[in-house]
Request: fold
Amino acid sequence: MHMKQFILSLSAVVALSTAAQAQSSSFCEGVHDVLKDAPNDYRNILGRMMESTTSGTMWSSTVKIPGVVGYRIVSAMGYFYEGAFIQTTDKNKLKPLYDEYTEKLKACLAPDGYKLSYQENFIAGLSDFRKVIFMKDIKPGTDAKDLPPHVTMEALYNKDIGKFALVMFIFNH
Reply:
């Protein structure tokens, strides 16, 4: 999905979220609820279809992870849960949430064997916000269908609407 389309549709998700939903009681519980259904391509937490284009299909989710302001499930070259923690015109508002949610994800995922790594963020003006990645070690010979889900968090910017976003993705593999 093109970044421009992604951010524009994320704006709509933040504004419109959601249909019938189950608010998880804690951040970690919500993350684990989504991770648990990742191998099923999120079928158990799939809500109504919101949009379908040649780039992908988006559904509401029946699980709202505490702290996200907009969320959905997307099928675009694979399935993933997407939750935005903030969308703002003020880049300075990203840093406290970036630090907070990096620590929360670490506390939730490290006990389950997930390891934290970072990748550079090449979006102009956002190099201080490296992409946060949580993955489990993969044993040699693991079949593609058995790959574990992984979690990322990224700071993004859409110049068309002039907004920054901090977004968590939970990929099915």
DSSP finds three helices and ten strands in the chain. Residues 3-171 form one domain. The longest strand covers residues 79-88.
